[in-house]
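(Structure overview)
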Amino acid sequence: MSDGPYSRYGASSSASYNSPAHFGAGYGGGQSGALANENIRGLQADTGNKGGRKSVTLHALNKNVIMWASFFTFSLFVYFLLSGGDFSFLMTYGAMSRMFGFGILNVKTLLSKRATGVSVKTLQLYCIVFFFRLTSIIRHEGYLPYDKSGDWLYHVIEIMALTFTGCAVWCCMVPFRSTYQGEMDKFGEINVPPGLGALYLAVPMLIIAVVVHPNLNSDFLSDVSWTYAMYLESVALVPQLFMFQKQATGVVELLTAHFVAALGFGRVMEFMFWVYSYHELATSAGSKLPGYLALFSQFMQLVLMLDFFWYYYLAVRNATPLVLPSHGTAMGIV
């Protein structure tokens, strides 16, 4: 067994305002008291509407804050009680963020009973990612986090993520199929049957993984499986981002945006880990090319998501829907 880097052995609208001069004219210039009272009631109603809008916005913002605060609180719990505090916990943290993202997606789909704005191709690719990663980490320990989370927690998180992803695919294709926007989920559908455009991502990544992979498990199938999952995950969000751009209005539901943001945050955690550990991903001949490819693939995914992260931040801050820049106004928010 090889001692790997984390091997277990290694816009507001203003309320109408009547000036004091207007009310003074009403009292001293012949305006009836009833009309003056009506103006006052109108002012109070406008103020109430403004307060109502603020309350709705504040409520939406509070829900976002509570959701993410709960995730970060749970993360601290896991770090201090179920982890040894090792740097490799970043891998577990990234896996937790992915699981959190797919949990959000299922909540969104089941509560709204709609699959709008969700790319089934991205879900299919993530099912492949989790499946191949599990086939590696269940059989061997070369790619498990070194700390205590690698004993069992990392496996559980990956299994739950696969379950959540499979549930999301089922929701989109069975009970809520009528709301799935298949006409927008068209990535890669050139010279392939409808719905199989993801093959343009899955097949090339498999070929690269077979040719260039590390050797931490000293097992060809296990090493290729883990490497394939890592490479494929770097492009798995491409169909979802493509679908966002194809939508007529460009509006992205906030829970769907949370789902994508959680996956992106998980990738940031993993990238931070591999910046310091990429040199451990060496081939049996000692080449560090797999480590360089791991860094490059993750970096390119983050570059592709930079615009999304910015407009996501603006949407969360303003508690408004998210609109990608090609569809929106100067700020991309409606």
Remarks:
- Residues 9-36, 42-48, 50-54, 327-334 have pLDDT under 50 and may be disordered.
